Amino acid sequence: MTDSYAIVLDSTSDIPEELEKKYSIPIVPAHVIIGGKDYLDRVGISREQIFYDLLNSDEKITTTQPSPIDFFNTFTETLKEYDKILYLGVSSGLSATFQNATIAAKKFEKGKIIPIDTLSVSLGITLMAQHAMLCRENGVELDSVIEQINEMITKTRIYILVQELKYLQRGGRIGKAKHVIGSLLNLKPILHFVDGEIDALMNVRGTEAGYEAMIELVTKDSKSYSNFAFSGAYGLENKTFEGISNSLRDKFNPLNYHYHPIGPAVACHVGPNVEAFITTQIPEDSVNLYK
């Protein structure tokens, strides 16, 4: 008999609510702390509130990762319905969230919880999670799903255009990009991920040049990846960026596509004025799941 398995995420996946409900995905929330008051991401605080506070409040805004107990409780409840759990976690280079999930996983019988460090965040995790869900729906065994997710991790790219670095600097999430000076002479840094950490890819002069550079990066990936998928993520609503994202979707006809806002826990660290493209390649064995 094939084991049943669940896919569990943390809230930094920013998975759209419709997917969360469609697949009944358990999500372990991060904690968002505003002026000393603790809120649960996606549960106790709205995106609108956190963005308002980021833009207008003088209160200190931070986040803390879910504790091992938070993960233990979610894993325990989920195992009442499933034999095993595949946890797709935010990059360990950004947060101790994955470490805490691993601590909790060790409390269970070996092989019951399989934690995977996606080396990603936000809609990068969403693309992997939806792939895992589609595989599960179509009877793909867990071992094969794990192989395919690990393959996707090596092909996932995140390109981030930030208008200001103060949020990343304040939260200590600037990673290898500490040397970037994005505020001088209207230079805008385009950041990307290297081994799960944020690094500087290039500086561009102004937002328009940033969009042009990101279009080139997505275009390059679309030509490199035979089974292309991508998403656009944003902070504040931006019709220009939305138009660019949808135009790229129409041009490249990706196997999977999302355009979705970042959530409170991620917004605390990158700030409200941010846009990102996430690209990946769907494993050949499962392309038919998207048709």
Topology:
Elements: E1 5-10, H1 17-23, E2 27-28, E3 31-34, E4 37-40, H2 47-56, E5 61-64, H3 68-78, E6 84-89, H4 97-105, E7 113-117, H5 123-137, H6 142-155, E8 157-162, H7 166-171, E9 187-194, E10 197-205, H8 207-224, E11 228-234, H9 239-252, E12 257-261, H10 264-270, E13 274-281
Parallel strand pairs: 1-2, 1-6, 6-7, 11-12
Antiparallel strand pairs: 3-4, 3-5, 8-9, 8-13, 9-10, 11-13
Helix pairs in contact: 3-4, 5-6, 8-9
Per DSSP, what share of the residues sits in E-state strands of 2 or more residues?
A: 25-35%
CATH topology of the largest domain, which one?
Rossmann fold
Report Rg: 18 Å
What class would the helix/strand composition place it in? alpha/beta
Bulk shape: globular
Q: How many domain units?
A: 2
CATH architecture assignment of the largest domain: 3-Layer(aba) Sandwich
